[in-house]
Specification:
A hairpin with a 3-residue loop joins strand 9 and strand 10. It is globular, with a radius of gyration of 16 Å. It contains five helices and twelve strands. The protein has 204 residues and is an alpha/beta fold.
Length: 204
């Protein structure tokens, strides 16, 4: 049975989700401390199989290297956001804070339609550009949708940073509009809500 824990508070208010299916775990957006994530895995008796990133902004990637150093877990990000890990201008840390913050390159580059296995669960990659060119959502077992900064409870991610595109964001939101409105979304910031309710707040 799939278990979900939000290890918030993570960096800069970003959610950090731990998914566990039996002895297998994945973290979606590594914003919490590595020790917090690994302690949660240990408590569930699971090993960490993946670090899955919805996009490459600094507030969602803070513990990627610490997790790799600790347990050798692969970090996965869409190909269009691959450079964000190694470029402080692209990951928005330098524009906002005037300092460098970089990480090692990703271990696996994701693409539309990729399916990852986590125990008995399936995690499908959906490309939803707009907040960044490489923003994705993760659809788990056709029931749960991890939306990163593509969609929040009543809002969506800003489009004025590197790679942001308002027109692409609109198309991504329209794509989500075509999905089952009863899907539960788990956004990069804020609380969980149904997909339909989140989108209704945007269009109203």
């Amino acid at each position: 049975m799939l278990k979900i824990e939000n290890l918030f508070p993570g960096s800069f208010g970003a959610n950090c989700y731990l998914l566990c299916d039996g002895s297998h775990a994945a973290v979606i957006d590594a914003s919490a401390r590595a020790t917090t994530i690994l302690d949660a895995c240990s408590a569930l008796g699971a090993r960490l199989d993946y670090v899955l990133l919805t996009h490459g902004h600094f507030d969602h990637i803070t513990s990627v290297d610490a997790l790799r150093d600790a347990v050798g877990v692969p970090v996965c990000i869409h190909a269009r956001d691959a450079d964000f890990l190694t470029d402080s201008h692209k990951n928005a840390f330098y524009p906002l804070f005037g300092k460098e913050r970089i990480y090692r390159r990703a271990d696996k580059l994701l693409a539309e339609g990729d399916v990852l296995t986590l125990g008995d669960s399936k995690i499908q990659v959906l490309c939803t550009p707009g907040h960044t060119q490489g923003s994705v959502c993760f659809l788990v077992n056709d029931e749960l949708l991890f939306t990163g900064d593509t969609l929040f409870d009543g809002g969506y991610g800003r489009c004025d940073l590197f790679g942001g595109d308002v027109a692409a964001m609109k198309q991504s939101l329209l794509r989500l509009q075509g999905m089952d409105p009863t899907l539960r979304i788990y956004p990069g910031h804020g609380k969980s809500i149904s997909l339909g309710a989140a989108l209704d707040k945007i269009w109203s």
